[in-house]
Amino acid sequence: MKFVPLLAILLLAGCKLIDQNTFAPSPEAEPIPLIPGPPVKYDSRTPLVTIDFTSRSLAYKELLRVAVRSAQMRDANVQFDVVAVVKSLESGPPAEAVEVMRTIMAERVPAARVHLGMQTDGSAAAVQVRVYVR
Fold this sequence. Notes:
Layout: H1 3-13, H2 20-23, E1 49-52, H3 61-74, E2 80-86, H4 95-105, E3 114-120, E4 128-133
Parallel strand pairs: 2-3
Antiparallel strand pairs: 1-4, 2-4
């Protein structure tokens, strides 16, 4: 029992006395000013195919078919994201994106593996459709 006071002293040596400074709030950090930088890139993936619809006589279907077949040869269960990049949101996806989606499905890709999406870009002159693989 001689060791109990010695043990108590050793245990209390590592303790800290609680006072007002323990619960005092720390000063607020200075806000960091926002520095304008490059525009935010919404999708960091590299598209399999990018189709720019600046011209209505655009022949993209054969290139798209070859790209879809190549992706399917690498992975039979590949999924495709068809993303329409438009200047502003309208009432639903543009007809160009739906046409690209149908072209992909014509290559025997089930509809459940083709996903349609939209993204806005204020600097877009015309509709651009990007096809990504998952």
